[in-house]
Amino acid sequence: MYKEIANSHPSLQRGKVWCRTCKKSKQIDPAEALKTGWPKCCGYTMTIDSPAEQAKFDNSRKTLNCIGTNKCQANPHPQQPETSS
Predict the structure, then answer these.
(1) Which residues pair with 44 in a beta bridge?
(2) pLDDT of residue 79
(3) Which tens digits make up the pLDDT trace of 33-72?
(4) How many CA atoms lie within 13 A of 25 on its CB side?
(5) What angle do CA 81, 62, 25 make, to 5 degrees?
(6) How far is residue 43's CA from residue 32's CA, in Å, rounded to a whole number?
(7) By three-state DSSP, how is residue 2 classified?
(8) How are beta strands 16-18 and 40-41 bridged, if at all?
(9) How far apart are the first and last CA of the chain?
(10) Closest CA to 25 of 34, 36, 35, 14
(11) pTM
């Protein structure tokens, strides 16, 4: 069953995890990790998301967090008023 689950997603199939804190990576057996527990590093569970995937997620999260605020406006520095010509 664990092997079937591990083969169900490309992120699991590559058998690699990353620490979001220190950026260390580690090769793993995903079926074994699903069975016995995911590796930890720097006190946190390591992620199956590659650094590139993490960056995409972080950027999309920043975009979603600014919706409905003045942080998404044309002025990237809301504390500095825009000057009009």
Answers:
(1) 41
(2) 46
(3) 999 999 999 999 999 988 888 888 777 666 556 666 665 5
(4) 9
(5) 140
(6) 20
(7) helix
(8) unpaired
(9) 66
(10) 14
(11) 0.63
